[in-house]
Amino acid sequence: MSTTVELKSKHEQVIELVNEISNTVRNLGVAFATIEDAGLDGRHITLEGKTLINFGSCSYLGLEVDPRMKQGVVDAVQKYGTQFSSSRAYLSVTLYKEAERLLSQIFGQPAIMAPTVMLGHIAAIPVLIGDHDAVILDAQVHESVQTTVQMLKVRNVHVELIRHNRMDMLESRISKLSESFEKVWYFADGVYSMYGDFAPMAKLVELMDKNEKFHLYIDDAHGMSWAGKHGAGYVMSQLTSFPQKMYLVTSANKAFGAGGGILVFPNEAECQKVRNCGKTYIFAGPIQPPMLGAVIASAKIHLSDEITELQDELMKRIKFFNETAKLYKLPLVDEGMSPIRFIGVGKPTVGYNMVRRMMNLGFYFNLSVYPSVPYKNTGLRIPINRNHTFEDIENLLASLADQLPKSLEESGSNFEEIYKAFKMNIPS
Q1: Running DSSP on this structure, what letter comes out for residue 257?
Q2: Which residues contact residue 140 at a Cβ distance below 8 angstroms, ignoring those fewer than 6 apart?
Q3: What mean pLDDT comes out for the span 295-313?
Q4: Which of 45, 62, 66, 326 could lock onto 387 through a cystine, CB 3.0 to 4.6 A?
Q5: CA 186, CA 137: separation in Å to the nearest integer?
Q6: What pTM did the predictor assign?
Q7: Strand 261-264 vs strand 214-219: parallel, antiparallel, or unpaired?
Q8: First to last CA, the chain
Q9: Out of 132-141, 218-227, 365-374, 378-387, which region has the weakest mean confidence (pLDDT)?
Q10: If DSSP codes are grouped into helix, strand and coil, which group holds residue 246?
C-alpha cells in the first residue's frame, strides 16, 4: 500500500510562514495591538496600561491633531452627514469638487482622489497599461502596486522584476523591451516604505527624455507633505516640470493628515480616462464627507506659507536622529533625510526581543519583519514626526544603543551579522 505525500506549493509555504510570524508578534504584543487611549495627542499611546512615546506613526507632520483639521471634519459632518452613499459614476458629494480643485492646485496638474491608494492603483494601472506594453517592477515597490500588477497578468501583459534602484539594469531592460513592446513602464516608489530611501529621480527623468517608449508610474505615498513646494511630495521636489510620461500616485493618509489616495496625471485627458474607466471609480464606494472635510482643511494648510515651517521643523528632527544614531554607532540602514528611519537588527528573534525591551522602557516603534523585508533583514522601523521632541529622540537612541548588544547576545547574534546581512560597512 503506497502513501501519497502532498507537497505544499510555494504560495502555501509563504502563507504558512507569514501566518506563523503574525501569530508570534501578536502573542508577544509587538504587533496587531489595539491602543487603550481615551484620546490622542499625536505623541503618546497606551498599551498594556503603559504610556509609550509613539514612534510608529506615519503622520510625519502631526496634522491629525491640528484643530483646523478636526474642525474641517466637524463642518463636513454638520453639512453633509456621515456618508454620501453613491458610486461616483452617478453622483459625488459637493466636497469632492473643492478637494480635487485644491489638490490640483498643489500639484499644478490634474488630480483626482480615490478612497485609498490601493484602490487608486486598481483604478489606474489596468487602464493605463496596454496589452502590448511591458512592465518593470522595482523589487521594493510597495506591495499595493505589486498586488495590483497581478491583474495585468490575466491579460498576458509582460511583467518582470529588477533589483532595487539598479538604474543600469533598468536602462538595459528598457533598451531590450523597446524592441518588442509599445511602451515600457517602470513602477517604483518615491520614498520606499521600509528603509526610507529614495528613487533616483534625476536618472529616471533622464531615461524618460532618452527613451521615447519609457514611462514612469511612481507611488510617493511616504513622500507627501513633508517635501516639495506646497507639500507636493518628494518626487515633485526633484522635478523642474511634470514629465509628460509620468503618472504619480500619493496618499492623504500619512503626512497629509486626512484620508484617501491621490492620483496626479500629465494631462486632463488621461485623468478623465481613469476617472471614466477605472473600476473602483465605478464599483467602489467614495471617500465620505468627514474625510473630505479633512482633505480640504489640510490642502489649505499646504497652500499656505505655513507648510514650509512645518517641513523645516520635521527636517531638524530627522537630521538630529541621523547625527545621534551615528554617534551611538547604531546600524542605520539609510542615512538619507526621509522621516522613515530603519535600524537593522538582522534576525527576527533579535527584532522581537528589541521591541519588547523598548516597550518596557516606554517606546513604541514598528518591527519590520518578513514579508515586509527579507527574512534576515529584520529591522526597527522608526518614523519621525513633528510632535516628537529632541529629548524623545535622544532617549530612544540612547536606549537602543544600550539594549541592542544585550538583545544580540540573548539571540545568539552579533553586530557583524547585522552589517553583513545589510551589506553595510562596519563602522570604525
Answers
A1: -
A2: 164, 165, 189, 192, 194, 195
A3: 98
A4: 62
A5: 6
A6: 0.94
A7: unpaired
A8: 64
A9: 365-374
A10: strand
